[in-house]
What does this fold into?
Amino acid sequence: MKNAFLIIDSTANNVDLFYLTHFSAPDSYIYFSIDDKKHVVLSDLEYNKGKEYARVDYVLKLSDYTKSGAKGMVDIIDRIFKDKNITNITVQKSFSYALGQALKERGYTIEVYPHAILKEREIKRPEEIICLRDSLNAARDAIDFGIRIIRESKVRNKILYWKDEILTSETLRKELFNFLLERECISVNEEGIDIITSAGRYSAMPHHHGTGPIPVNEPVIFDVFPRSMKTGYFGDMTRTVVKGKAHPKLKKMYEAVMEGQEIAFERIKDGVNGQDIHQAICDLFVKKGLPNYEKNGEVFGFIHGTGHGLGLEIHEPPRISFVSTILKTGNVASVEPGLYYEDVGGVRIEDIILVQDNGCEILTKYPRELEVE
It folds into this structure.
């Protein structure tokens, strides 16, 4: 009895497929592995490109099977696997239910891969760290550019002007988007293209992208998550600044968030439970008189996790949150505690770390400074 791991999908829909093959195509194609040997089955349109770029052991031509009488995907898979004496197939949770049932009817045993993503993706290889550093540098430079715009802006009637025009969240986002495009990066999340440049009251909503004029003396959150067009790997970084003088409560929040980050930096290492780190930061905020509370159905305070994994997806395992997760050497994750209150706005500071045997390396190097002039 031989087993095959099977994916039929596009790389746009399935990041695991790109991770396994390093071959990107707009349409779905067949990938399977047998005894650690990787195979792809490509259309005539993609075959020559696949022969050159796909990091697999074998590139097969789809038309070789359709020309020999295979009708539809079930026939194609059945013919390939019968030739290779495959009886057991492992698929992911996203695999087509109808196709799985049809393969069962052909006599195959179907098992479902138990993890949300390939487990090996959680431990980053050295070459992946290089890719991540490049994208993180792009995020850092974009935020630096955005903060320089804030510094260069002038104050008129309690709002900021830049190049004699009202400076808005939309303007900042456009400038950062174009900056990243020059770096062959695009800032995207699960909802599509986006950059967070939220200011004033909108900064109290963690995922609000920001809208309208930038006010003086109020927080501006820059959260940039560029994906490299060359490698597919993400960067992610957040800074909060104020043009002018910050409210005393906002200063207190900022200092607490920085202290929360330091707790994480000091404690993260191989074998530590991310849940314990998250709880320690929650306890710190309560101790400093910055608790969570609910008002008119909205919750304020520290209302998200401490961190998330980063790689070919902007949010991937491991999580540093209220859920138990043991961190391992080679994990790459964000550390981004935040505090959000409706009276003064929000503060979030985000840096990316690499988990090591006896500590962590901070991969993002950029000043943490609240007030800018």
Remarks:
- The chain has two domains: 2-114, 122-372.
- The mean pLDDT is 96.
- The two ends are 70 Å apart (CA to CA).
- Residues 126-152 form the longest helix (27 residues).
